[in-house]
Amino acid sequence: MNDSERRAALDLFYGELARLDDKVGGRRQLSLCDGRMRWPKRGVYFFFEEGEFREDGITPRVVRVGTHALRPSSSTLWKRLSAHKGSPGGSLPGGGNHRGSIFRLHVGTALLAAAEWSSEVQSTWGHGSTAPRAVREAEYSLEMAVTHKIGMMPFLWVNVDDEPHRESARGVIESGTIALLSNFDREPIDQASSGWLGHHANRDAVKASGLWNVNHVAGPPINDFLPVLSHFVDATSFK
């Protein structure tokens, strides 16, 4: 796919998101969402971020794409979103668990590099799949900062209630969208702003792609997933 073909595919993709925005009654802010809302069981989500736009300077650009349960799992769309959102209550309210959310992990590494944090949190952030209470308490302030950052991000979601499988429609939409949006190792289109927090991430895949994603960013841009996305946009509603 050459640059002009990719631009055309991107225009089609954002056209589908505009339709999706209308179908669900507008983007939601994650901090204002909860599990009592009428979420589909499974789906694909698209996050935006303040100050990030397409080349027209008007259309918000997608900064994160994700799904869940591509392997057999009981995970739901809301469970995945709530892992990114963090914990509103509990013993560490407003925090979260970056070890259970790769999105939180990446945002946290960027926040670590963009400001001064204790050497303790710098030495433990992103290490291990679990952590003792003392470590989680030391990381609490950074987890709260991540919760605030992600919580302010608006997002859209498309209802794709298929069975867990890597070749599922959700997997096709996720991987295809990321590869199309990514500027990794190619001529940038709709590139990240100079002030985008992701420039401070510790993963080259994030910095170069302009996305809070690592998987699929080096994949060849394609448009084959667009009819699949369009089909499920037609079937999505939240109003």
- How many independent structural domains? 2
Strand content: 5-15%
Secondary-structure-derived class: alpha+beta
Strand order of the largest sheet: 1-4-2-3
Q: Which descriptors would you attach to this protein?
A:
239 residues, 4-stranded antiparallel β-sheet, single chain
Structural account:
The chain is an alpha+beta fold. The protein folds into 2 domains: 3-83 and 153-234, no CATH class; 95-149, no CATH class. Helix content is 40%, strand content 7%. The chain has 9 helices and 4 strands, in the order αβββαααααβααα. The protein has helices at residues 3-24, 77-85, 102-114, 119-124, 133-138, 140-151, 169-181, 204-209, 226-234; strands at residues 28-29, 43-47, 64-66, 154-159. Strands 1-4-2-3 form a 4-stranded antiparallel beta sheet. Helix 1 runs parallel beside helix 9 (226-234). The chain starts with a helix and ends in a 5-residue tail after the last helix. The mean pLDDT is 94.
